[in-house]
Amino acid sequence: MIIGLEGWVNAGKVSTFSVKYLIDKLKARRFGEILQGEFHDYVIQRPFVSIKEGMIRSYVPPQSILYYWKGKDDLNLILLLGVEPYTNWPRYSDAVLEVAENMNAKRIYTIGGYLADVTAEEEPMISSTTNNKDLIDELKKTGLVLTSYAGPTSVYSEIMWRCKSRGIDVISLWSAVPLYIEGIYPKAAYYMLKKITRLAGLEIDLTDLKKKAESFRFSSERRVITQSEMRKLLENLREKEEKKPTYIL
């Protein structure tokens, strides 16, 4: 199972964009939904409505949609694209794990993005956390940085902790995103998916995403360089000898 959520975990849209990319690329099919109503605060994040010439056309509340992809050699994926719950994390996590257990998922990957003092010129650092110490060597071999952190967390930690007693392995991957990035940051999604496809044994051609990441990098630099404050920020960041994650999202 691969999980991507909107909200606190989604700097640079790394979480949701990565999962949407996999859904489109693999042509995964929607098969269910975790009803979000009891887990959400509509005052904090309101539903989206479309109205044309006085007639309501659509109404879309926060959703957690489940997709399924059947691959070769018994490699199948459940993809969860949703919104991080505002309330009742334990019950939401149980709903996610019920799906995972009923569909015999052996491993769960969660995707997150956080704001950090890095630049768009650098390869995004992907950090990792797991609930199974036997996976540490695998994470290192994949070139992932092992997370050391204490502080506010996301629903991913709730899911990971609950899976520990249920015998389901969880790997949580987080990508650093430059402080000045707004909207989708495809470069982080590209490097994130490179790691996940390797860990999961997925054979997916990411060339189109790589090209999108490269073109975004250049346009982003042109946009930033016209803003004196942002240019100073970039110069200061380049001068720093040591880069450490800053979880300020």
In short:
With 249 residues, this protein is an alpha/beta fold. The protein has 7 helices and 10 strands.
Structure description:
The protein starts with a strand and ends in a 10-residue tail after the last helix. It has 249 residues and is α/β, with parallel strands linked by helices. The strands form two sheets. An eight-stranded mixed beta sheet has the order 2-5-6-1-7-10-8-9, with helices on both faces. A two-stranded antiparallel ribbon has the order 3-4. It is 36% helix and 26% strand. The longest helix has 19 residues, at 207-225.
Give me the strand/helix succession: EHEEEEEHEEHEHEHHH
Number of domains: 1
Q: CATH superfamily, called what?
A: PAC-like subunit
Strand content: 25-35%
User: Distance between termini?
Assistant: 25 Å
Biggest sheet features: 8 strands, mixed
* Helicity range: 25-40%
> What average pLDDT do the residues reach?
87
Count of alpha/pi helices: 7
Shape: globular
Q: What is the fold named in CATH at topology level? A: Rossmann fold
What is the number of strand segments?
10
